[in-house]
Every structure is written in C-alpha cells, then in structure tokens.
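Record 1 of the preview.
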Amino acid sequence: MNDSEHHEMNELYEAICRVDNIEDAKNFLDDLLSTQELESLSARVRAAKMLMNGMTYIEVTRETNISSATLARINKCIKNGKGYNKILK
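->
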C-alpha cells in the first residue's frame, strides 16, 4: 500500500470513528456502500456471531448463504484477529 492509499484508509477509519449512533451509522453506510455491499457485510457480521455462538460451518452457510471461503476467513479472523472479538462481544 502506498502513502496515498494508506492516507485514504486512515480517513475512512477516522470517519467510522466519528459515527456515534445507529442512525448516523445507517446514513453513512447507506451513502458509502451499495445495497449488495451492505448486505454482504451484514451477512459477515451475522456469520461471525453465529460461529462465536458455536454454530457449525454447515449451519452458518445454510443460514447466510456465505461461501465456504468467506466463512473460513471469518473464522480465521475470529480466532486470530482483533476486530470481531472486541466489537461483537
């Protein structure tokens, strides 16, 4: 990632940090993302919660229609990442 891309990513993270209620989060994400992108992200959050609650890959896939590759990445992030476990607890 070059300096310009790094700066742009930091601007996005800073914008997210300025969101302080559900209505602002909805409005910001509705402006930022397409309906399909928003649905995809919400499905990932739902899948992460389901895995954290002990559901199996098969159960989560059936409920969310997330690909096995995406589900494996979510599971890896739950086990080794810093975001899901802090934010979704």
